[in-house]
Design goal:
This protein has about 400 residues and is of the alpha/beta class. It is about 40% helix and about 15% strand. Strand 4, helix 7 (about 165-175) and strand 5 (about 180) form a beta-alpha-beta unit.
Length: about 400
């Protein structure tokens, strides 16, 4: 029965975690460890993976329920969780790479991902080559020689640039590399990277999966061998595990994920269309717009245009800040995928550690703002943006 359920139904009914009391909501096992009736019972419990529950850093029923449900949603054999989205990216990179290995990564990258690739990994002898998201010829050149891992952020944060997942997957596999896709800005409701050739899909569950700004979490979707033999040992021994409480919150949020994201994407498309007519030509980036430079890629690999857009206000940083000051409904913060509409200025927040020249080179101009569209009435959001833009 479970294998026949469609995704929306599975997010509510599969798998169910219940105690002997038969509660309708998934059970929350908020415990650090588990007791044994005898020493003989304890011994096989540490035969990981597959032993009985012994310690929540190793495994927990609530956490496993979330992982199984996420794998169903992503269409992969397995999934594993972490304490945050960045912990998920870090676990994949550090568990997969060693001194002398080579990583090819797309640009732009989220600020912390950029730091991992350009600061942390080189300390351990990993070579990192960066290619702009839209430069397929650049990926072909970078992957004309052997590589170990390819990391794509698509849509990219904050410019909404897209990478052709299928095309780069073929190049990566020919070069002997696994393909990792960070889909934090999309969620599997907007894009299912595994269906286009991604071997590993990393997600910040803090974003759309929770969608209400409550908890941190990270999720990694992959095949079972990657989970059991590569990622689980790394996460178990280094400790960036998801708490059972956060896993329970995320489990409940997945029940409404599709409804929320589809509504948000619908509003985002309306707002992008409005801004496209309101601002100077070329100022708005939204993959769902017919004149977006990556619209053809969006048609091939995205289920809709997504819930985020980016636009240039004009007037440099001061012009962007003036617009932010005039907002009355939309909130200024650096989260995304939330029920409330959120705006941020990447040049002074998420990507502030880059030099101005580096930011401009990858499309993060001083007047660029990123908008994450929530569940408010789209007309209220359009009116708020209209008056704030002056």
């Amino acid at each position: 029965m479970a294998s026949k359920l469609r995704r929306a139904t599975a997010m509510i009914h599969r798998p169910r975690v219940r105690s002997e009391f038969g509660e309708t909501s998934d059970a929350l096992f908020l415990t650090a460890s588990f007791s044994y009736a005898s020493g003989e019972e304890a011994e096989p419990g540490f035969a990981e993976p597959g032993g009985r529950y012994c310690y929540t850093r190793v495994g927990n029923p609530t956490v496993h329920a979330l992982e199984d449900r996420w794998a169903l949603l992503q269409g992969t054999e397995a999934a594993i969780s972490t304490a945050s989205g960045m912990a998920a990216v870090q676990a994949v990179l550090m568990a997969s790479l060693k001194a002398g290995d080579r990583l090819v990564a797309s640009q732009p990258l989220f600020g912390s991902c950029f730091w991992l690739c350009t600061d942390l990994l080189p300390r351990y002898g990993v070579q990192v080559d960066l290619v702009h998201a839209g430069d397929l010829d650049g990926f072909a050149r970078a992957l004309a020689r052997p590589a170990n891992l390819v990391l794509l952020e698509t849509p990219a944060n904050p410019t909404l640039d897209l990478v052709d997942i299928r095309a780069v997957a073929d190049l990566a596999h020919a070069a002997g590399a696994k393909l990792v896709v960070d889909d934090a800005l999309a969620s599997p409701i907007c894009q299912r990277a595994a269906e286009h050739g991604a071997d590993i899909v990393v997600t910040s569950a803090t974003k759309h999966a929770d969608g209400q700004g409550r908890v941190l979490g990270g999720l990694i979707a992959c095949d079972r061998a990657t989970r059991d033999e590569l990622l689980h040992p790394f996460i178990k021994h280094t400790g960036p595990v998801l708490s059972p409480f956060n896993a329970w919150v995320l489990l409940k949020s997945l029940e409404t994920l599709e409804l929320r994201v589809l509504r948000m994407a619908e509003s985002a498309a309306r707002i992008a269309t409005f801004l496209n007519g309101r601002l100077a030509p070329g100022s708005v980036r939204y993959p769902g717009l017919p004149d977006d430079p990556h619209h053809d890629v969006a048609l091939r690999q995205m289920l809709n245009g997504g819930t985020l857009l980016a636009f240039r206000t004009g007037g440099g940083k001061e012009g962007a800040f003036a617009m932010l000051r005039r907002l009355q409904v939309i909130e200024i913060t650096n989260n995304l995928g939330d029920t409330r509409t959120i705006v941020t200025h990447p040049g002074t927040t998420t990507h502030g550690r880059l030099s101005r020249e580096e930011r401009v080179r990858i499309g993060i101009h001083d007047d660029l703002v990123r908008l994450s569209v929530g569940l408010e009435d789209a007309d209220d959001l359009i009116e708020d943006l209209d008056q704030a833009l002056g």
